[in-house]
Amino acid sequence: MTSSRLFNNIEEFSVLGRIGICLAIAGVDGGHRAVIFDRFQGVKLDVIEEGIHFMISWLHRPIIFDVRTRPRSVPSITGTKDIK
């Protein structure tokens, strides 16, 4: 009887632990950067690079920015006449 009760307690603890770990993980994809908003200090100055980062879910919130370069076409009215 006590072994099944102990197993239920361990199972409940492991489920709560998994939920806590999932809430504490923040992933930053390639080509993106993040800054951390702290509920007590505001936006932190550190820029978070790509990868998986652990943070306190109720205290920190990642704000993710796209920093990839995008191709642009710039029209020009001047041309070259030396091409033969």
Automatic annotation (TrEMBL):
Q: Which GO terms describe its cellular component?
A: mitochondrial inner membrane
The keyword Membrane is assigned to this record: yes
Query: Which GO BP annotation is one of this protein's?
Result: mitochondrion organization
User: Which terms are listed as keywords in the entry?
Assistant: Membrane, Mitochondrion, Mitochondrion inner membrane
Q: What is its main location?
A: mitochondrion
Coiled-coil blocks: none
Q: Where in the cell is it found?
A: Mitochondrion inner membrane
Domain spans labelled Band: 28-82
Task: Please give the name of this protein.
Answer: Prohibitin
According to the record, the signal peptide region is: none
Give the protein family. Belongs to the prohibitin family.
| Superkingdom, taxonomy of origin | Eukaryota
